[in-house]
Amino acid sequence: MRIVRLANFVTPTSGGLRTALDRLGRGYRAAGHEPVLVVPGTAVSDEPAEQGRVITLPGPELPGTGGYRVLADRRRLADLLDDLAPDRIEVSDRTTLRWTGEWARRARVPSVMVSHETADGVLRTWGVPAPLAARAADRLNRRTAWAYGRIVCTTAWAEDEFVRLGARNVVRAPLGVDLEHCRPDRRDPAVRDRYARGAAVLLVLCSRLSVEKRPGTALEALAGLRDAGVPARLVVAGDGPLRSGLERRARERALPVTFLGHVADREELADLQAAADLCLAPGPAETFGLSALEALACGTPAVVSASSALPEVVGPA
Questions:
Q1: Is the pLDDT of residue 273 over 80?
Q2: In angstroms, rounded to a whole number, what is the distance separating the alpha carbons of residues 215 and 211?
Q3: Cα angle value 241/245/251 (rounded, 5°)
Q4: Which class is 184-314 in CATH?
Q5: What is the value of pTM for the model shown?
Q6: CATH code of the domain made up of 2-172
Q7: Where in the chain is the domain with CATH 3.40.50.2000?
Q8: 154-165 burial, b for 16+ CB within 10 Å, e for fewer?
Q9: What pLDDT score was predicted for residue 13?
């Protein structure tokens, strides 16, 4: 089958969504299918990749998101879908792409929308009052559930916002990690010493540095530990629009924080996760939290937001 996948909010330095798309594409190819991924960018491109064909269409950049773009030209994307003639479509965004579910209905193409975030959670993290966020999310989710043949959620926590509206087309499919890549025997004292710089406790945050991820909570945790007399140090792997402000806060409070930026090397990132004493996952609206599961697979405890799906993911760990 030709599986055409559509996604917004994907950049060379983005995290969990980009990882999931890449692994799904590789899996589809290994199963004998033809995956085609369509994402927004600065210019048109059409390139082969290990995850399959990747097509980029120009899309406007969203202010304040650190480079995220969206597929906003419906006519151009509809023409592309007509040309590609997919056997299936898989959509990873419910905002500017929700109309593609209706396109699929008209074209009699089975469709699926993968829910990578809760609508009300994202709205609340951007400052929308909770009652208004809930009402807006319910309207959006009803339309989304109607538009697509299947809605895929990675946790029961994420599934709930559709189930409570009576949606009957929801499927739960948890994410996973490569246990050959993420494993406890990666822990290397030399790597830990390089990052800890003599600190007794090494904290690691692997996250995009944007509002909905609440990365400032990691700095507050570090400050609290040090105020309590614990000689801790924080390493931040990730980039985003809040980075400069976080760096300024760390300097002003004399907090020992190392900002690595985006770590593209998966081996280097796994070595860091295995070397840490604790990995932090403070995002309050995470529907899964892949980096926390990666940390656990590396043998490193994770401290997570109780308001997210992560308590379900980490269980008693």
A1: yes
A2: 8
A3: 145
A4: alpha beta
A5: 0.85
A6: 3.40.50.2000
A7: 2-172, 184-314
A8: bbebbbebbeee
A9: 67
